[in-house]
Design goal:
It is built from ten helices and five strands. The protein is of the alpha+beta class. The protein has two domains: 103 residues, Glutaredoxin (3-Layer(aba) Sandwich); 83 residues, Glutaredoxin (3-Layer(aba) Sandwich), CATH 3.40.30. Strands 1-5-4-2-3 form a five-stranded mixed beta sheet, with helices on both faces. Helix 4 packs across helix 8. The longest helix is centred in the last third of the chain and has 18 residues.
């Protein structure tokens, strides 16, 4: 599934801070600033970003990952409080063709239909809570239809050239960041962190806050 084993430790400090996204959380401050090579990785070759004038943060994920499923509520709290100069976007990864690419098609087709807001968390719930096998396009289309989404339109878009282009772009970006497991956070084409690097999924958000501050100094 993933190439690293991400730990999922719920931090009391994060809950007490209410998911604050600016500055280090108390627990992180006590541990000192994040260390390069330990809590985050600096890319040898910076990548171009798609949000000129803003700091780009990329959340790499896979619908089939239980770690990504656990991370989503924390990520939602965090992204809701990001400063105005930060642009966040999700990018699904594919470590092998199946079922990763099917889930990439699912995400980008839903995005093209304007359904990410309504269906993103519901996809996670269907796979991890309801234990549905959403790894074939016909099964996904049928499930979407039951949930009030146009399954025929989904099927059309999932196989479209536009979605295939998005898949190629996602692969190029994840390769550029050298993502080998999810969830992971890329910051402004310069850094990435993860639960394993940071010490927990919660602390990866704190490290990302610190990296955003560093990116703000050099952009």
């Amino acid at each position: 599934m993933n190439r690293r084993d991400f730990s999922i430790r719920l931090a009391a400090a994060f809950a007490a801070a209410g998911g604050a996204s600016s500055g280090l959380l108390p627990a992180a401050a006590a541990q000192g600033a994040p260390l390069e090579g330990t809590h985050f990785v600096r890319l040898a070759q910076p990548l171009p970003v798609s949000t000129p004038g803003r700091i780009e943060v990329v959340g790499f994920f896979w619908y089939g990952s239980p770690h990504c499923n656990a991370f989503e509520p924390l990520l939602d709290l965090w992204t809701a409080k990001l400063p105005a100069d930060v642009a966040f976007r999700r990018v699904p990864v594919a470590f092998r063709p199946e079922p990763f690419e099917i889930h990439q098609q699912l995400f980008y087709a839903l995005e093209a239909m304007g359904q990410i807001g309504a269906m993103h968390r519901r996809v996670f719930a269907a796979i991890h809570n309801q234990r549905l096998r959403l790894d074939r396009l016909p099964d996904i289309a049928a499930w979407l239809t039951k949930n009030g989404v146009d399954g025929a339109k989904f099927t059309e878009l999932a196989s479209s050239s536009a979605v295939q282009t998005r898949l190629r772009q996602a692969r190029q970006l994840s390769d550029g960041y050298k993502i080998d497991a999810v969830p992971a956070l890329g910051v402004h084409g310069r850094y990435y962190t993860s639960g394993t690097l940071a010490g927990s999924l919660e602390r990866s958000l704190t490290v990302a806050d610190w990296l955003i501050a560093q990116a703000r100094k050099v952009r």
